[in-house]
Structure formats: structure tokens, C-alpha cells
Amino acid sequence: MEFSIVFQSILNITILILIGVLLSKTFSFNDETRKMFINLIVNIAMPCMILFSIFKVDLNAGIFKSMLIVFCLSIFINLLGIALGWILSITFQGDSTKKREIALMSGLGNTGFIGIPLCATLIGPEAALYAAIFDAGVDFTIWTVGVIMLQKNRKFALQTLKSMLNMPTAAIVVGLVVAYFNFKPPAFFVHLTEQLAGLATPLAMFYIGMLIMTLQRGKVREKGHHLWIPLMVKLILLPFSVALFIHFFELNPKIIQTLLIQSMMPTLTLASILFAKYSADEEMGALTTIISTIISLSTIPLMIFLINLIGVY
């Protein structure tokens, strides 16, 4: 992978985030505007990006097999990150009451908002499809292992499956069914999905830029001693761990690149929402998401450069 392409993509993302920062000064970024952006991204832009990726790729038995491998490896990578965060939390903060939050933020990344658009830009439509499947693995982990960890009774209820029924997941299922039966959608529909897919990256970065402006110094100082573990695991230890174990698999280079890039993503944007739902530390989730996103603008190209040196790419 050309490092210049990586640098250019990160530079573009940085500029879009800065535009989001400027936009936040023009209107009130409250719960309503936050919901609007999330709905536009999650329910329109991301599903269209997934569908367009499927339309652009010539799916065959080999691709379907690769997608299953990516889904399984996604769950493994997520659990690996969660385990690393849990172990480090016990080792360095044994009396902490935030072990659950730290562990989940260490393993679950922003593979949808940032990961899918970045893989599409750096590698192409096939990688965007694999990135979407990886993100489906993250969703599966969130609403199974994540929910079990956050619930006080530690039981998995069937109603948590409803949370997995979202538009990106539906887009994957519909797209794969259409591709399996070799149905060719009308040209105007493909063109429409392409146009709407183009909204995914700008909207997601604008949202993150506006989220950054909600950061408060007092809260950072108050919770800062908890943040270093998920930041270190998610942005450094997990990508290097994936780079090491990926050598044991004979995989398509595009799959390897997708897995590595997705493992480098900052903490998932929905961390604060997930924690609020299960009475965990919502503010800690929001802070980790914002700070990890800012730092990842430097660590993503750095990790790609270092992993490039050891010959994974």
C-alpha cells in the first residue's frame, strides 16, 4: 500500500473533521442534531455505501467464503482487544470499578463511521465490502458479549437481538441476497446509491468534529487515569497483535489490509450511547471516543508505516 495514499486520506479526514469543528460554531450541537447526523449516517449513507460496494464487486463462491472468514476474524479481533483491556485493567487498576468499560473500549472500534470509508478509499470497493462485514462482526460482539458484560445480571436476553437489526446489517443481507441470485439492479438505483454513499465520509467526519467541541478539560482530568489503557490497546497493542497473528493465515492481501486497518480504528462512536443504555459510565465512553479519534489521526498512518516495515503489506 502506498504510504502517500494513506497520508493523503488521513489529511482529507483531518480537514473534514476541522470543517465539522467550524460547523459546530454555527449552530447548537444538541441531542436533536446529534440524532439527525447519526440517522443520516447509519440509516442512509452507510447502507448505500455497503450496497454500492456489493454492486461494484463481482461476487462468487470465493468472495462469499472470504466474507465468512472476515466475519469470524472480526469477532476474534474484537474479543482479543477486550481481553487485553481487561488484563491491563486488572494489572494496573485492580481496584477500578471501570473494568467493563475499559475492556469494551479497548476492543470495539469505530469500524463503521471511519473504517468502511477509509478502506473504500485506500483499497477499493471489495475492501469496503470486507470492512462492512468486519463492522457486522463488531455489531455482533457489541450486542452479545458487550451486553452481557454491561448487564448487572450478566444474562443475554433475546430482546438484545433487536438492536442488531439495523440498516447497515439489513443492507448487507439484502445486498448479498441480490448478488447471490445474480440480480442486476437498475442503473439509476446504482447511481443513486453511489451518490448517497459519497455522503458517508463527510457526514461522519463532520459529526466527529462537532463531537470534539463537546470535550471539557475538567472531565478529561477527572477520568484521564482510566483512558490510557483503552487508548494504548485500541490504537497500538491491538494493531500490532493482529499484524503478528495474521501471518498464520493464508489470506487475500485485500483481506489482510482490511483487517489491519479496521483493527487500528479508534473507539466506537456509540460507546457513550451503549454505556448510557446499561447504566455504565457514559461520559467516559464519550471522552475515550473523542480523544482516541483525535490521536488516531496520527497513529493510523504511523501503524501502517511500521507494519509496512515488517512486511505484512
3D architecture notes:
By secondary structure, the chain is an all-alpha fold. It has a single domain (3-309), classed as Up-down Bundle (Na+/H+ antiporter like fold), CATH 1.20.1530.20. 76% of the residues lie in helices and 0% in strands. The protein has helices at residues 3-23, 31-56, 61-92, 99-107, 111-122, 125-150, 167-180, 187-197, 200-212, 217-245, 253-263, 271-277, 282-309. Helix 2 (31-56) packs across helix 6 and helix 2 runs antiparallel to helix 9. The termini are close together.
Text of the CATH class: Mainly Alpha
Count helical runs: 13
Radius of gyration: 19 Å
Query: Percent helix among the residues?
Result: over 70%
User: What class, by secondary structure content?
Assistant: mainly alpha
Low-confidence stretches: none
State the end-to-end CA separation.
Answer: 7 Å
Counted up, domains total 1
> What is the count of β-strands?
0
The ordered H/E elements are HHHHHHHHHHHHH
Family: Belongs to the auxin efflux carrier (TC 2.A.69) family.
Organism: Bacillus salipaludis
Subcellular location: Cell membrane
Transmembrane segments: 6-24, 36-55, 67-90, 102-123, 129-151, 163-183, 195-215, 227-249, 255-275, 287-310
